[in-house]
Predict the structure of Wax synthase domain-containing protein.
Amino acid sequence: MDSEIKNFIKVWIVSIASICYCYFLVKHIPKGLTRLISLLPIFYLFIILPLELHSFHLGGPTTFYLVWLAIFKLLLFSFDLGPLSDSLTNPSNSLLHFIYISLLPIKIKQDPHPKSPTNAKSNQDPSSNSARNGQRSAFLPIKVLLLAMLFRTYNYRQYLHPYIIWGLYCCNLYLGVEVILATGAILARAILGIELEPQFNEPYLATSLQDFWGRRWNLMVTGILRPTVYGPVQGMSTRLLGRSWAPLPAVVATFLVSGLMHELIYFYLTRVSPTWEVTWFFVLQGVCTAAEVAAKKAVAGRWRLPWVVSGPITLAFVAVTGVWLFFPQITRNGVDQKAIGESQILFNFFMAGVQRTISLVRGLF
């Protein structure tokens, strides 16, 4: 484990140095192909660096941050688009600000237009954003506790029905991803003093696939795929299909790219050749979401399922197809067992630290 932590530190030192190169040199190169070429060495580094890590909890998030989010942000940056270009337009933003935006799954909350209803409302209650962020931060310890309870439950998995275990895996996925992303966001908010967009928006309250994937689940991925995939494909499709139907191929293309990126992350976690189940999972979600959008256009608001029906159907569809296509590559290669084992080690280490602290306090008094 000591060597893994050393490799983790080295990976992130090199990553930060690479972003410093982008901040001090690349930003002065004219946008377009020339800037893109200057970023190719960084893309190469970000692709190979996570191969130095073999643990689930260090390697998984690092791969997600570097291979997916950071490279996609830099792709936009090469054409003067996206969050990195936005951050440079504000002269008060520092190198530290640029590094955080580049390497962490965060998005700065943008002020709405002064005349918009949203901004008028926030002007009447300027503390509303802080209150919402405070509520999310307050719920984080509860979610961490639930996650710890889940990992303790796995000790009794031999007594649990397989369907219950799959249900636990679905909850584990949601809680684990949200806790990891929220931790980075809290750190960035504390150091930079900026308001950030939420990374999740209560996905268990989704009433449709469009609502689940577009407005509630892992909004950092949604935010980076929209300008890199959805927007360009929609623009090209508009000329062929017209404005009304152009979003449909854009939706499917976005899910396809998401599936391929998940396939790549699975390779880093398993180090075995891809079997494409997770790609087909996202293609299926994309096709069904596009069909849902088309159906909504066809009925034009004349008919809608009540949320008490559409909500459970949506969650059941995502969960069942996830068990069918999303999890097999993970379970087949023992990644789930590795993750559970690492989590239990971390939990035991944390509890031992708490007990030592309690003993130390008692000794003082």
Remarks:
- The two ends are 36 Å apart (CA to CA).
- The CA atoms of residues 100 and 188 lie 7 Å apart.
- Confidence is low (pLDDT under 50) at residues 116-124.
